[in-house]
Structures are given as structure tokens and as C-alpha cells.
Amino acid sequence: MPRYVIERSFPDGLIIPINQEGAAATKEVVARNANLGVTWLHSYVSPDKKKSFCVYDGPDPETIREAARCNNLPVDKITRVSVLDPYFYS
Questions:
Q1: Which of 80, 89, 24 is closest to 55 using CA atoms?
Q2: How crowded is the C-beta side of 56, counted as CA atoms within 13 Å?
Q3: Global confidence as pTM
């Protein structure tokens, strides 16, 4: 399955409560993604919480965009990536 980094902007900041409400919200994203064959692996969030860089597996960029629409999430840019592991060369 191809891997992608999705860049997102949140002008007001990305706020996900660290409680049951936040856990439920992220589980809903995972479930909606799964309906489209998309898997959210993990994300990085800037210190000001205005940018996120999310790592996803999915069939193609359009399906990633559709999953974002289903989850009301913005998409600034989608880049197909591959893993570069520094320990591979050891």
C-alpha cells in the first residue's frame, strides 16, 4: 500500500482534548478512514498546533482526500513517500 504525508493547516489550532472525548473523536476518524481503505499511522503537530503532518497508508491521493472530506479535515498537500531508515545501512 502506498504511504503519504498529508500537510494540514489549522488557523485556530488543532485542539484534541486528552480525555474520552478526544479518544472517541480519533477513533471515529480511524473508522471513517477504514471505510475507504485508508490507514492513519501517526501525526506530527507543530508547537503552535497550526500545522500537522500526518502519515497515512492509502490507495491513492484522491482516496486520501475523500477520507479527509469525510472527517472534515483540511488538506494542504499530499506527498507520496517511502521509508528511509538509517539503520538499514548498518
A1: 80
A2: 32
A3: 0.90
